[in-house]
Design brief:
By secondary structure, the protein is α/β, with parallel strands linked by helices. The protein has nine helices and 13 strands. The protein has helices spanning 11-14, 16-25, 94-109, 129-143, 162-167, 175-191, 218-225, 268-276, 307-310, and strands spanning 2-5, 27-32, 35-43, 51-56, 74-79, 114-121, 149-154, 195-198, 211-212, 228-229, 247-248, 294-297, 304-305. The strands form three sheets. An eight-stranded parallel β-sheet has the order 9-8-7-6-5-4-1-11. Helix 4 (129-143) packs parallel to helix 6. The protein is globular and about 55 Å long. The two termini are 22 Å apart.
Length: 311
């Protein structure tokens, strides 16, 4: 079993104490986002967790507790974009806080355990092509000693974020422009020894040396954990997604980063309500289990292949 922590919210930034409590307790409860009264109880025994993938924009709260992950193969999907608070409303200063955190984390866990995400690419009057080329190059210069690759994507204008993006003058990026940006980014990244891939993009950029990413990456976990895994592609993701199966333990409408492009938050009011209902000792990310909730034990197992069978 691979744990995704989490596509739905920034657990390392806002809920890391809760996460470590769940590891200690040996299980976590996750509400079904399509039926909130259905709860899965997921075991978190060390012998069945094949790896943990963290998704974050600021894992600073975790840095003093990384020793608690010594028994688990893991890596971070670390999003670091060039946007100001008009786009990423509640993030700390990139220069003073986020970039130093990226570097500190890499020095602590190793550059193979951090995937840099420049994601999503947004174009408007302020964030022009030249702006992106300038700041992508600057970030490559700062981050290349501390990571192996950068995953990029282009903005998807979901219904729940369309109005916010319209106010900022953000539009869909044409396929032709995507190709132009990808080629330029690839050239810049190559100069710093970084690989580039894309997250869930339909466009085929392989002729430019840019592959589709597997953000839940079995091969990376195999390299980190020094084992082999028998994994299947995640059927719940888009066709273009290269991710392998995982169990996400997050919840929608709980992330406080305030990014205007985020598909996982539908209401700031709901986010604040759910955040205030967080209890670090609860098996749920927010709120408590109620009488009308139905709890089902999730049957999971390790996908590790014994060393004898793959030697």
């Amino acid at each position: 079993m691979i744990l995704s922590v989490s596509r739905r919210t920034d657990i390392p930034s806002y809920y890391s104490e809760w996460f470590f409590n769940r590891l200690k307790e040996g299980y976590v409860c996750v509400r079904n986002p399509m039926n909130i009264h259905r709860i899965s109880r997921v075991p978190l025994n060390k012998d069945i967790i094949d790896g943990i993938v963290f998704w974050t924009k600021n894992p600073k709260p975790m840095l003093q507790h990384l020793d608690k992950l010594d028994d688990y193969p893991f890596y971070f999907q670390f999003t670091l974009n060039p946007y100001s608070t008009d786009i990423e409303t509640n993030l700390a200063s990139k220069k003073d806080h986020i970039i130093p955190t990226f570097i500190e984390l890499s020095k602590s866990v190793g550059r193979e355990k951090i995937v840099w995400r420049y994601d999503p690419i947004i174009i408007n009057e302020k964030y022009s092509l030249e702006y992106h080329y300038k700041y992508f190059s600057s970030l490559c210069d700062k981050l290349s000693p501390y990571t192996e690759k950068c995953t990029i994507s282009f903005i998807d204008i979901y219904r729940n974020i369309a109005k916010k993006l319209m106010v900022l003058g953000v539009k869909e990026i044409s396929q032709e422009l995507q190709i132009e940006i990808a080629i330029r980014f690839s050239e810049i990244a190559k100069g710093y020894g970084l690989l580039i891939d894309t997250c869930c993009e339909k466009i085929d950029l392989s002729q430019y040396g840019i592959k589709h990413a597997a953000c839940i990456d079995g091969s990376r976990l195999e390299r980190i954990g020094n084992y082999k895994l028998k994994l299947s592609k995640d059927k719940n993701q888009r066709q273009e997604c290269g991710c392998f199966e995982s169990i996400d333990i997050g919840a929608y409408n709980t992330c406080k980063n305030g990014c205007v492009y985020c598909y996982a938050n539908f209401s700031d009011t709901t986010v604040n309500k759910n955040f205030n209902a967080h209890n670090v000792n609860s098996p749920l990310l927010f709120g408590e289990i109620k009488e009308d909730d139905v709890i089902t034990d999730r049957i999971v197992e390790s996908n590790k292949i014994s060393q004898i069978s793959w030697l």
